[in-house]
Here is the input.
Amino acid sequence: MCWSATADLVAGAGIMAVGAVSVTLAARNPRDLPLAALPLLLGAHQIIEAAVWHADGGTGPATVAWAVIALPLLALWVPVAVLCAAPPGARRRLFVPLAAGVATAAVLAYALATRTVTAEIRGHTVGYSLGLPQAQLVVAGYLLATIGSLLLSGDRGLVLFGVLVGVGAAVSFALWRQEYVSTWCAFAAVCSVVLTLWVRRRRPPR
Here is the structure.
């Protein structure tokens, strides 16, 4: 995230608190739990980046943990979670972003297992580097899996979340091209609080 370790830590703790509320609200609708838990995951992700700041970047455990969540885990988590929560009529078309997520997660997991991911503190941002071959193709698969699944979900709340995340991706790429992954993840984490409203709307009556 931009600014500092403190900003990551405070933001992460707040987003995790929102995530805990989301999970509690979704407890009576298990199909919504994976999406409801997304703010918890993204909040923890920001807290891990605070540890990257404290380590002054590098290739340590915090950097690896951050990359595992940001790259293969989210590429798979989001389309699976959307498929679980989507209405029956939308599920067939969601197999396309799911397939993209499976393939992208496999490529990214292999890259993390065979290459060294590094983090570099660049002013008020953190830049991550993995040296991916065919990076543009991998990014396209990642965007299809994550943003694509939300936009194809058939649910207005999830489509709104997808639009917000898509705008965040475009802004992050335009303003922080070398720190794109970090800034976009932070933006997505903040936007994920809208999932609490989505869960609340879908909560079944007692």
